[in-house]
What does this fold into?
Amino acid sequence: MKVFQTPDRGFCFGVKRSVDVALETVKKAKEPVYTYGPIIHNPQVVKQLAEQGITPIESLDGIKPGKLILRSHGAPSSVIEKANKLKFSVVDAVCPFVKRTQNYAKKLYKEGYKVIIVGEEEHPEIKGILGHAGIEAQVINHMSSLKKISDFKKLGIVAQTTLPVQRFVKVVSKLLPMAEEILVYNTICKNVILRQYHTMKLAKSIELMIVIGGKNSANTRRLAELARQEGCETYHIETHEELEAGWFKNKLKVGVTSGASTPNWIIKEVVEKIKNGGKNEKR
Ligand code: SF4
It folds into this structure.
């Protein structure tokens, strides 16, 4: 059995930067260190960081002030204002590409556009962008939500950084007849586009795809979705412990891809076990 890996594996630039900022902060801090929500969507990395004193919190209420790290996905401006008021010291570890989307949303709002964010309403990145996009801003994920929009003179559109390009194109083209003026910023992250492209390409030439990354990671779930769309048998796992030997029976070509918040050490463990037919012990 041969194992093929996509070229863009491991942490993306934004995730690596956030984790580095968190580690640097906890090294120097004398006060408690928190992240607002998990710093990245990978439970194994979040657990490792917690062991080093970096605690994820979901609310500031009743928490002893300390350093508050803003995670790679960002945070709404209301959270930042509240943190400052409660005397937390805010540390910015937001990915610059997520911040760029927030800035575009803010700019569109200030220039009188109704802001449309194409992405998942419940995703923390979207909540962060919404907090910068004005009260009329709207999130659209599926085409069915489109009918709620009507008669706006100026629409300004941005995308969740992990959105599949095809979905963005579809939504934008549906919105075209609904306003006199439309300004679109393509805020999909290039790293995500490349990962999706390489995953789809690999999926066409193999019999089985293993996608590694947090079950809560939107970009990892999309990679699995895309591999399945290519007709490839696909499993989304977080660690090597989930691999089952039966998946690899009679398979000659197996592919491995990973989300942007999956560390290299997890990928290495998975690849080693796949090479061993999905079994723990060496042959
Ligand atoms: S996938 Fe792109 S936008 Fe998201 S954290 Fe990584 S570099 Fe930033």
